[in-house]
Write a structure and sequence with these properties.
Elements (H helix, E strand, L loop, with lengths): L1 H19 L4 H21 L2 H28 L1
Helix pairs in contact: 1-2, 2-3
């Protein structure tokens, strides 16, 4: 039950932060955290293909955050 709750929280964090990420660069970083949590959840469940995909999404989101952070610095 505890693992399922963790999975629900991870996917919810991912969904809500992705849905609202245009509002702030920090929501992109929160999306990356949600992806990492989902990767961990799928690894604990033994669903390794999803672990790999969510791990890749984590890397993509971290890169998007870094690019957006850099852009905001340049614009100022």
């Amino acid at each position: 039950m505890m693992l399922t709750t963790f999975g629900v929280i991870a996917v919810t964090v991912m969904f809500l932060s992705y849905w609202t990420e245009k509002r702030s660069k920090w929501l992109v970083l929160i999306f990356a955290v949600g992806c990492g949590m989902t990767a961990l959840y799928s690894a604990l469940e033994g669903v390794y293909p999803i672990t790999v995909i969510e791990g890749l999404w984590t890397l993509v989101a971290v890169r998007r955050f870094a690019e957006r952070h850099h852009l905001e610095k340049v614009i100022r």
